[in-house]
Amino acid sequence: MFSVRGRGVARLAATILASGLVATGAIATAGPALADDGAPGAGGVKAKLVSGHVTEGDDVVIKEKDGKAWPVGGGLFTMQVEGGGTLQTYCIDLRTPTKNEATYKEVGWGESSLHNNENAGKILWILENAYPKFSAEALGAKLDVDLSKNEAAAGTQAAIWTFSDDVTATPTSPDAKKLTEYLLKEAVKLEEPKASLSLSPATISGKAGEKLGPITVTTNATAKLTTAAGTPAGVKIVDGAGKPVTEAKNGDKLFFDVPAGTADGTAELTAEATTKVSLGRAFVSIDGPSQTLILAGSSDSTVTAKASASWAKKGALPAVTVAKDCAKGGLEVIASNKGDEAWTFDLKGTSYTIAAGETKTLTVPLAEDEAYKFTITGPNDFEETFEGVLDCKTATPGPKPSETPSTTPSATPSTPSTTGGTTGTTTGGGDLAETGSSNATPMIAGIAAALVVIGGGAVFFLRKKKTAGQ
């Protein structure tokens, strides 16, 4: 949720230096990836971070493995869903800055920093058993303490950081600390939650007279199905038995039924649902580097997913699906050709050829935090554009204070804000939100560590005042 330390500068430098995709990648004939129900899909919630400020939270002390300690504000962010609805999220990337009003996309754990985190399931347990799933009053009664909303949010965030960023996170409030200790003691691993709505694969192809598909639906709701305006007459969305369908639920297989004799063309399917997004779904920025978030609460939200089909009597029939592959540190591009001629496309200056009837998987390496945007084209006006940011790792501790130019931090405490639109009050020149990092942070960390050693119970000079609700 909150971001600290020197990775902000490193992220900015990486973004500036990254000019796009690495020119070469490893290509191999696709194995089970395309056939699996877990193949990359399209869809899910998109939401905008209301601001870089926490809306409910309190002070937390972070202790690194090397013993250094520093203060930070921990709590909930609010996000606005495209199409309607709101989300509440916690941070799972402690040292990375937030970007005001950044747009985020819902993804599975495999496309986020949770992809190799053995404690991801315990984070989900915390979300299911802490605030805001349970009220501050209910949690306080369970622990026999007088817990405010801000303390409940800070105590929950501290427990999450312990598992997401491998640190010791301790709220400064004794009551919030009791909540953190309880959550860490009781947490057990739960299974990854389902996507709110996803269609996989995102594009398919074939010949008229066939059922083109299948497209697998993954959802926690019932989705309404529609085809785009201009869909050729006779083209329908059907199930495996060929029956026309207008709704779909989790696990359903959908097909484009294209009658024989239909002129070469394309069609697009839209699935839409109103649902609460499952707790524990990860949210990554598609609008430049910004810390990774995890869902803690959801109103009813509008979710959409799209898939397209193309068909032709002869020639190449391309289809392509792209997803982040955090395990391989890049993108997985699955390109297939169900036509009777080879298909050649250009990807960032390099040409790739997919033979008739062939499917290949192209792994495109990317640097961590690298923004990407590219378009793949083919015959019959085939065109698919993909963009996003590779964000697969939590930020690591920044440089030691002695390795960073000295700056003078503000002596004025700050308070977690409930409104957006302003940048932080830290000195040092960073154009970051209050919950972001600045180049003064290493100095703050050093001073905070000294205060902990000298005073034990001393109040940190950057400690935020508790907001109303305590």
UniProtKB/TrEMBL annotation:
Protein's UniProt keywords contain Membrane: yes
GO biological-process terms attached to the record: lipid catabolic process
Keyword Protein transport (UniProt): no
Transmembrane segments: 443-462
Keywords: Membrane, Signal, Transmembrane, Transmembrane helix
GO molecular function annotation: phospholipase C activity
NCBIfam families: LPXTG_anchor, strep_LAETG, TQXA_dom
Protein name: Cys-Gln thioester bond-forming surface protein
Species of provenance: Streptomyces sp. R44
